[in-house]
Amino acid sequence: MLYTTLGKTSERVSKIAVGTWQIGAREWGWGRGYGEEQVVQAIRRSVEIGVNLIDTAEIYGGGRSEEVVGKAIKDIRESVLIATKVWPTHATYNGTLKACERSLRRLNVDVIDLYQVHWPNPLVPISSTMSAMEKLVREGKVRYIGVSNFSPSQLKRAQESLKSQEIVSNQVKYNLLERKAAESNFSTFGDRITVLAYSPLAQGLLTGKYSVHRRPKDLVRGINPLFDTANLRRTEPLIERMRELAKKYGCEVSQIALRALIERENVVAIAGVKDAAQAEINATSTEVPLSQEVVDELFHLARDIKIATLLPLIKTPFRLVESLTS
Ligand SMILES: NC(=O)c1ccc[n+]([C@@H]2O[C@H](COP(=O)([O-])OP(=O)(O)OC[C@H]3O[C@@H](n4cnc5c(N)ncnc54)[C@H](OP(=O)(O)O)[C@@H]3O)[C@@H](O)[C@H]2O)c1
Question: What is the pLDDT of residues 250-280, one digit of tens each?
């Protein structure tokens, strides 16, 4: 495992983290339907290999994800950092304090290592959320403060309203094909803020197992523009090159995708997993000896791919009906 530090702190964090947003999602009718026990095993296998960051959120599975994470780490609490998130509609001062209490209870822990604001909420002054965050740190209920899906200017405003704490991370979508949010962070903050890269495998597309002939069945991916036919075709040259590299290094395509992404010092990839086998593949991706030259080549290839979002968006209602009726 490779490690980096969280923001400007000295906290050591693994470059591969585990994401758990699919836990409980089946009940919502749009999830990938993973078994809870399998995800527990996936978390535990990841930790055995050296992963020490588990990401969840109060919204995932309506709280079920936090409960399952709590169960998975019960006897290994000291080996992991738990990151969870307050949902934007709870992000008022009192709402944040209460949401944190509920998360602590569901996780069955005394302290949340990284508490993140899941999305900015234009209706709630960020200063209120951040005051609550600082209170939680003072009370020892939270160790570090993070944000998610914040633009650099939103992050700056959040930082300015903190009196004694620093924001350590911004969790944004970042994979070879979707780079915009992370890159705007890099250009504004350099390596000072850790970028927690969500959907680092482009929801499974960058594992090489999906194509126009084999699409994922769940609703979330059914409406993701990346899985639109034209976009899938556009990504083929990149995936093909990743396949060649995987063959050369005797590894999986997904490991190439993760290894390339975490080459940058301040990036941690939060990969979603369905079982221990996927967890093991992802956690060991740090061992793939990709050179900087190959990483640059992959980013270069990816930059040449123009993902269309407008047409897939227009098709979304039809896809929704298709997914719900199939
Ligand atoms: N902050 C936010 O707003 C936000 C938003 C989204 C996600 N996240 C976080 O990021 C985490 C990951 O995001 P994500 O699940 O959307 O995307 P992802 O990590 O890019 O993709 C995960 C999916 O890829 C497949 N997969 C994973 N490892 C694999 C392997 N080794 N071999 C083959 N297939 C593999 C699995 O799906 P199948 O096997 O079913 O194909 C898995 O569910 C979430 O759990 C969550 O913690 C945060």
Answer: 999 999 999 999 999 999 999 999 999 999 9
Task: Give the pTM.
Answer: 0.95
Query: Using an 8 Å Cβ cutoff, are 268 and 262 in contact?
Result: yes
> Which residues does a 6 A CB cutoff place in the pocket of ligand 1?
19-22, 32, 55, 118, 148-149, 171, 198-204, 207, 209, 216, 254, 270-274, 278, 281-282
Per-domain residue ranges for the chain? 3-208+252-289
Query: Using N-to-C axis directions, what is the helix angle for 36-49 and 276-283, rounded to 10°?
Result: 30
Question: pLDDT of 178-229, one tens digit each?
Answer: 999 999 999 999 999 999 999 999 999 999 999 989 988 788 888 889 999 9
174 among known catalytic residues:
no
CATH placement of domain 3-208+252-289: 3.20.20.100
Q: Catalytic residue among 60, 115, 174, 198, which? A: 60
Closest ligand 1 atom to Cα of 201: 20
Other Cβ atoms closer than 10 A to 143:
18
